[in-house]
Design a protein that fits this description.
Oligomer: single chain
Number of strands: 4
Strand content: 5-15%
Number of domains: 2
Order of helices and strands: HHEEHEHHHEH
Distance between the termini: 19 Å
Structural class: alpha/beta
């Protein structure tokens, strides 16, 4: 957060407030090349809000854009009750990964690593979801009974650019 505030101050001090890279010879713009790379990488806007929710919970107007991210349609849910804006099967874990994982808590860390690797191939779909989150609230829907160790937690972290695959609360 410290870097983001400093970057905002530097941008507003520039004519036009542009986010252009510093000119050669500018002293003090960035402390190191590593900081520079961190500051120019694609970052979600501070206003991006991504929630996760079980599809079996009632739809709410506060959900915003509702996207189902399971490969299989959830049992007992009609399309009308689901009230979906999108069904993003391509962002769900592959069948092989899903069958390997089987919601075994001992495999959670490895599942997160493997799922992130699968998501790297879905860059366009991830960027589209980031744009949706920037435009308004995005709710990722999943069918798992496990609110803390499921693929929606990992996908949310990827969308928000967090670095560790640790369980989060379902409504965070």
């Amino acid at each position: 957060m410290k870097h983001r505030a400093a970057r905002t101050r530097r941008q507003s001090a520039r004519p036009g407030g542009s986010a252009a890279a510093p000119r050669a010879g500018t002293v003090g713009e960035y402390s190191s090349p590593a900081c520079y790379l961190h500051e120019v990488e694609a970052q979600p806007p501070a206003s991006a809000e991504v929630r996760i929710k079980r599809i079996y919970e009632a739809a709410d107007a506060a959900d915003g854009y509702r996207a189902l991210i399971d490969r299989l349609w959830p049992r007992g849910i009609s399309r009308q009750r689901a009230a979906l804006d999108a069904w993003l099967k391509e962002l769900a874990p592959s069948n092989a990964l899903r069958l390997w994982y089987r919601h075994d808590p001992k495999r959670w860390t490895e599942f997160g690593r493997r799922y992130r690797a699968e998501l790297r191939a879905q860059r366009a779909a991830l960027e589209a979801l980031r744009a949706r989150a920037a435009a308004g609230r995005l709710t990722l829907l999943y069918a798992s009974r496990e609110p803390r160790i499921n693929h929606a937690v990992v996908l949310r972290q990827v969308l928000l650019k967090t670095s560790r695959a640790r369980p989060l609360s379902a409504q965070s």
